[in-house]
Design goal:
alpha+beta, Creatine Amidinohydrolase, Chain A, domain 1, three-stranded antiparallel sheet, 13 helices, binds glycine, binds manganese (II) ion
Length: about 425
Amino acid sequence: MRYRKIDNTLFKENRFQFSKLLLNNSIAIFNSNDLMPKNADQLMTFKQNSDTFYLSGIDQEETIIVIIKKHAQVRELVFVRETSETLKIWEGEKLSKEKAREISGSGSVFWNTDFKGMLPELMIGIENIYLNSNEHPRANIVVETRDARFGKWMRSKYPKHVYKKSAKLLHALRAVKKPEEINLIQHACSITKGGVERVCRHLKPGVFEYEIEAEIVHEFLTNNSRGFAYDPIIASGGNACILHYDSNNDVCKDGDLVLMDFGAEYANYTSDLTRCFPVNGRFSKRQKDVYNSVLRVMNSAKNLLRPGVLLHDYEKEVGLLMEKELVDLKLISVKDVAESKSNGAPAYKKYYMHGTSHHLGLDVHDVSEPNKPLKEGMVLTCEPGIYIPEENLGIRLENDILITKSGNIDLMENIPIAVEEIEDALNI
Ligand code: GLY
Ligand code: MN
Ligand code: MN
């Protein structure tokens, strides 16, 4: 692995907490993600299933994790792919059983080819079968996942059992990060900081958006990251108003801002940052005014992220903060605000059309229990923005925030964000 070894206490604890949520006489089974095809004989880079990683630390294809709770006793089994002579020649060694034991902290490691043969014995006395599925509220899945295929196979083999969902249990657990996870996210943030510093050294009029992307990925790869935690947005001028712009093909022009939304991955954990820099090193008066409006909203919004808060209420409060800034910038009027109150479509949505915060962890839009109050240990982004296509100007600022017992800690507080800090960093 490219990252330092993660203490397996984390995965043991994750399995223990999950097993506590299972009904008695249950089996829960988790698969790796598939190796997804490109064209001809090529495959996409493997990305481990986040739940399988969370419960085992095993970062390898065709892994199966089994957790059994019977007579209040828990058994945990890990099945991994065995290295064949062919694999050894073409792909190199897969994990040995000993290595898989060391990574996962589970004493029971088997080859995945033994899984189907062992299953009848594992199923003795089992009443409930917990299957996994991607139940992220915004997921739009059009391919059949390995977990889904496996689920069909289980249902055909064991049609009379009671089927349950693991996803709901994992959403609650994964939303609250353990200290080791927070360290890993903080480390991802610190690699991202290096990316920002590198951009400061390379940004100038005439640079292409993809050249900025190249500088950032260079920084990430040389710092033990496998790369971007999500496709980066490097959007200069009016491109910044396209919320999911990621073609990154344009040239950065003198006088424009460039919006950069990127974050490093580290040990499968994510970071998520947005900064907007003036291409020529200095903000214009108008750019500065809009930028400072976004920054004020961000600073106030950050303070609202604390234990007990419901994200739904928080988003409403941030909307009011944004409304005031947009009126001050003369983008909307007090009359627009009043009228929008009566028709139920807030006026600020014209210039700020997305949410302010999402959970962050093994996935950049991490799983959570959306209608439950925030808790200590959760990590969320804070990312307000103002998008004005008629001025070719889009500004978003984004940091990653850890909820603590009494408030929060900004995990990106040491990455330049104030206008003066950015101008200083760009003009060394
Ligand atoms: N770049 C993904 C996000 O900010 O949510
Ligand atoms: Mn984000
Ligand atoms: Mn982002």
